[in-house]
Amino acid sequence: MKRSALIAALVLGLAPLSIAQAQDVSGKDISGKDMPGKRILQRVDTNGDGVISKDEMLAARERLFTKLDRNGDGVIDEKEIEGARDAIMDRADAAQARLGTRWRRMDGNGDGKVSQDEFRNRMPLFDLADRNGDGTLSADEIAAIRKVFADRAG
Description:
- With 154 residues, this protein is mostly helical.
- The chain is built from eight helices and no strands.
């Protein structure tokens, strides 16, 4: 997609729609790979029919507007956008710090580098999520660990 077309799609709120159209209902592309639009489709497709209608897109945009209009005065002002920007930067800073911490933890021998073996063998999140210790993650275990992280973030 050309840059100007992408910008127009974002402004019109159509980018999530075009992403959703590129995948099937399961969220996988033709090759079976997960598609990044699956999350958008799940959030915006409120009636669960596998497509996003114009009404669903308008409702999603209304929810976004309400979220950005923090004081509820019916307009989004520069202060509210600055607050949203700050929140995004705070999350990015926190993610960057977590990445650094995780990298240091993977560096088992402390040489300042993470080898392929160190990277492959370090899976604390998997071990944490595998509550019954059977070496596999069930849908219930994945849901439980996602809830833990959602509760911490919220």
